[in-house]
Amino acid sequence: MPPQTILITGASSGLGHAFLTHYASLPTTHTIYALDIAPLPLPHPSASPTAEIHFHTADITSTASLHTVVGSITNKTASPHIDLLLHCAGIRGLVPGVVSAQREEGRQDVAGAEAMGVMDYETMMRTFEVNTWGAFNVVRSFLPLLSSSGRGRGLSVDGGRGEGREQAKVVVMSSRMGSLSANSTGGAYAYRASKAGLNAVVKSFSVDVEDVTFLMVHPGRVESGLVEWKEEGAMSVEESLGTCLRVVEGCGRGDSGKFFDRFGEVIGW
Q1: How many H-runs (helices) and E-runs (strands) does the chain carry?
Q2: Is the pTM of the predicted complex or chain greater than 0.85?
Q3: What domain of life does the UniProt record list for this protein's source (predicted)?
Q4: Pick from 86, 88, 92, 76: nearest CA to 37
């Protein structure tokens, strides 16, 4: 495998930071572009002797912000391309006023902060803006660098799982909560709807752009900055990372447009 150039959104926390730390340590990684609206935490991930980490402060909902990053990559690189894009940025869609009230009362009720009775327009629209529009904005903005990744570089592409892994790949962190068929508990109105929309967006990219592989992955319920409390049954980012990596690295062109859990099982829409 030739040296990889990787772009990671949401790189300052949670699973995005775990992906950054992992890929920065690999000798096959050449360059990582780490994007987040918040700065990288200290200490910064240590890179292998072959890897460079370039951090960009970026708002994924702003096309101008992302185009600035694209311009920086294009202007400073002799052969600008991205081999792997990991989109990890997102928000949970909890109503801020409810969260504040719970904090003051010493309560921790995630479901209560996203329930039907408390959901409001501002929270719903903001969640769509970040989770659905943000995913579309990221992929569309960097698509020219992804589409150029496999051209003229001697990269093989074919059609089965575990094969053609050198074709440019986009992996979007989705959620089982975005599956309509898997919804048996209700609630979580903003988050569920925004992730269902995200899945529709990525599926359309897989149809419209044949020279890039697009995957949606449910990483499990992970301890992250999406909520300020640890949810029941939440796992560490390290536990989720280990299984997600097998999906990211094991899927090929024939899997483009599919929605997987972290064990590689297909999730119904």
Answers
A1: 7, 7
A2: yes
A3: Eukaryota
A4: 88
